[in-house]
Amino acid sequence: MPPVTATPPHDADARRSVRPVICYPNDTLPPVPLVLYQSARQGASKIDEVLVNPRDAACFHAPQGHFFRISSVEGPQVGDLNLWNADDLAERFYSGKTRALHGTHITTGERMWSSFPGMRPMATITHDTLNWYGMDKFGGSVHDVIGTRCDPYTHNLLAGGQYHHCCHSNLTGALSDHLGLSLGEAEPHVHDVLNVFMCTGFTRDTGQYFMKASPVRPGDYLEFFAEINILGALSACPGGDCSSEHSSDVASCYPLKVEVFAPEDGALTGWTPPPPNGYDRSHGR
Prior knowledge:
Strand content: 25-35%
Number of helices: 6
Order of helices and strands: HHEEEEEHEEEHHHEEEEE
Radius of gyration: 20 Å
Shape: globular
């Protein structure tokens, strides 16, 4: 039985026309020294490279004060990115708070924030070759922090069966292999992602999460500055460019490349690593 629509009150239009208020004005966030980062990047040298195979995931390390780049190398492909504090896996990327601070999609000069109680910048986007895309007429944009990752549990709920070719399982397996953990030990550390290169939004009529073909092409990349010592995991989504299915055995899928760069000595003079959040954790007690 469809839900019953309530009768609008006499002042319905007036209620709808109330102007919105930004929940978290972000003009008091710590300033991003983007000029310093981009200057330091000029003389940086590559120290590591990881190729993430199609429909699979891999881990990488980006030491504090280094840069890491995620690139499209063979064809249009989106990736699901998890980040952890490499010295404490309990501190990990917090997509919900990143969304609240920066919006549904992030780009150059914006940051990936960590979970409570640390709540500090983990990585700052320093270069985005897709920042020309902006917001399209459907309300879609790239690099979202609204999608959670394709997973076998939702697939089981909606379609039944035991389907493993999804980013959640990829990330779980990669972390398990990298750290020598069992799948059961690794899985609780996997968390909501940054959807690198993915083009998404919400429909205007029903408010549903949608995806469309990513505008990414070989040579495009998203580059970050590691504010803390980072362990990352990246899944090359089984949906390919996500133009038709969220995860699929038939979509055209391609690898993604992660490169890590070390700046020259002295290139970051004046930069201070972000400390954990200053809240005293007394919670009014």
